[in-house]
Every structure is written in C-alpha cells, then in structure tokens.
UniProtKB/TrEMBL annotation:
Lineage top rank: taxon: Bacteria
Example GO molecular function: alcohol dehydrogenase (NAD+) activity
Reactions that this protein is recorded to catalyse: 2-deoxy-scyllo-inosamine + NADP(+) = 3-amino-2,3-dideoxy-scyllo-inosose + NADPH + H(+); 2-deoxy-scyllo-inosamine + NAD(+) = 3-amino-2,3-dideoxy-scyllo-inosose + NADH + H(+)
Organism lineage: Bacteria, Bacillati, Actinomycetota, Actinomycetes, Kitasatosporales
Alphabetical list of InterPro entries matching this protein: ADH-like_C, ADH-like_N, ADH_Zn_CS, ER, GroES-like_sf, NAD(P)-bd_dom_sf, Zn_alcohol_dh
The organism of origin for this protein: Streptomyces clavifer
KW Metal-binding (keyword) present: yes
Functional note: Catalyzes the oxidation of 2-deoxy-scyllo-inosamine (DOIA) with NAD(+) or NADP(+), forming 3-amino-2,3-dideoxy-scyllo-inosose (amino-DOI).
Protein name according to UniProt: 2-deoxy-scyllo-inosamine dehydrogenase
Amino acid sequence: MRAVVFEEFGREAHVRDLPDPSPSAGGVVVRVGATGLCRSDWHGWMGHDPDIVLPHVPGHELAGVVEAVGSGVRNWRPGDRVTVPFVCACGRCAACASGAQQVCERQTQPGFTHWGSFAEYVALEEADANLVAVPDGLSFGTAAGLGCRFATAFRAVAGQGRVAPGEWVAVHGCGGVGLSAVMIAVASGARVVAVDVSPHALELARAFGAAMCVDASAYPAGADEAVRELTGGGAHLSLDALGSPVTCAASVRSLRRQGRHVQVGLLPPAAGDPVVPMARVIGLELEILGSHGMAAHDYPPMMDMVRAGTLRPDLLVTSSITLDAAPAALAAMGGAPGAGVTIIEPARRT
Ligand SMILES: [Zn+2]
Ligand SMILES: [Zn+2]
C-alpha cells in the first residue's frame, strides 16, 4: 500500500510503498476513504507523543470501507462503510465495562499506538467495540472528522459540559474542534462567545452561529474579561479547545459562579502545565472537567443530528488533498492554526 511514513521526528515524511496490514482476530482492515489532518498528528510527528515508535504512519480520524475482518469479529463485514473513535477501546477492562470506553485502560489509537490512516489501508483493533456505521448519504470526507474533532467536541459540550438551552458557552480556540463545539453548542440552544486570534476563524464561528466573537490578539494574557463582560458576568460553560496554559486559565476565569470548564485541547508537555486559578475554583464553586474523545456507543444521538442536518460537519471541511501532498501539509500544521479542516483522500491522484 501507499502510505505517508516518517523515520525521524520532525524530519520530512515521505509517501512510500509499505506492506498491506492484515487484521488481528478481533480487528479489521479498512480501505481509507478519507482521513483528517489534525494538530495531534503534527504533535506526533514532532515527537511529543511517547507512544509512537519509528518508523511511523500518522493518521487517526478516518472513514472508509471494511476490506478484511479478523476471525473473531461478529458484527462487521467487508464492504461496510465505517468510522471509528480515535480512542479504540479494548471492550473488556473496568472502564469499558462501565461504559467509559473513551478512557479505556488498554486503548489503542491508530496513528499513535500503531500505524494510522495516512495510507490506503489501516488496521483497527476490537472492531465490535469500536466501529461506527457511516450512512450512505454521508461522505467519507465528512465522516472522517467524526472520529476525532467532532465527536470530541460533542462529548465536551453535550456530555461532560451538560450544555442547556439559553446558557452562555465560551469557546477558546476556533480550530477544528473549537468550530465543531460552536456548531454543537448553537444547535443545543446555547448562546456562544467564540474566542480566537484569527479573524478568519472568528468569521467561520460567526457563520456557524456564534452570537459574539472576541479577537484574542487584543488580550495576550487571556480574553476572560471580555467574555465576562459580553455574557453579563461569565459563561455557564467554557471550553479550552486550543490547549495552552493561557487559554486554559482564561477559560476557567471566563466562568460565572458554578460554571463548568471543559479541557478539550491537548496540552503538549513542552508548553508546561497550566496554572489553574484554584482559589477561584473554590470561591465560585467551579467545575473542572476533562473530555477525551467519545465512545462508539455514544455516537447515535450525534449521528441523528447529523442525519437531520441540525449539525453540519461537512461545512468544517475546507480542503481536500492527495496522499502525496500530505507530508508538506503535516509539516505546515506547526504554523499558526488555519481555520477549517483539511482531509486527505488516499485514492485521489490529483
Ligand atoms: Zn485529531
Ligand atoms: Zn477497555
């Protein structure tokens, strides 16, 4: 198969011919229809993820067609259109038994714990616990994002964040996951304040229904005061969708009394741990929550909203590229976060 592979962290990746994967007993091999380019892929390439063993094929948000199934798989057949959460659960540990597959004790993650989906084929473990059917009307390009940014945002806003109609929701960082969060919060009846340094990202947030936008470049120490002003005392729910010490602290300080902060953006160790204003957490009885992907069995309510057109993940995809263009696009993810989402289509030639 053709795949994007890198032999050294931070050095140019290349498209090469590699052996086709074969499925484990509980796993499947999927022919990749589309795979999203995510900032986590860039962190992996830079060497920020201790799970990655070289040489490595990145890619963790994907959709495609089941090509081969392992002997122990009961629910899936070749030809099925599928996507998968980026956290693939084992299906058997205590966390999985309690329904919390997104924090599985023995999870695998394509593109991190093993070779990922910047390739014509990808192997996925424990298919019966992890695969999600993609309806015929949903393109692979749109479905790919459901594995990472969109499902992650859905659980952060609707699950962990418990958003309610009429609430103020602040979203710090309007990249792929942040814009998804804006769309999901608006569809849930909340009023959204979008915060970002990029005018284009804020433009998109407004197009997705954000009631207010804050240009964070005017507030290098965090845009919390602007959020508190615009929301008449603070947001009920605030997300750090970027993942930085500044946006994390600003998100917490954006909250009104008894508000909920959800940390969604990954915090790379290189940036250091954020300083969370814990005195404020006590004094205002704030909740600090984490959100880590979403289990396959929690997808149906989100899929229903996508099918009904209440949620439009298709609008987040702004460009689609070939596998050959992927190494340069991966390297470019280290620059200023662009607005919108790029997907790679491995079968595409030009
Ligand atoms: Zn991702
Ligand atoms: Zn498990």
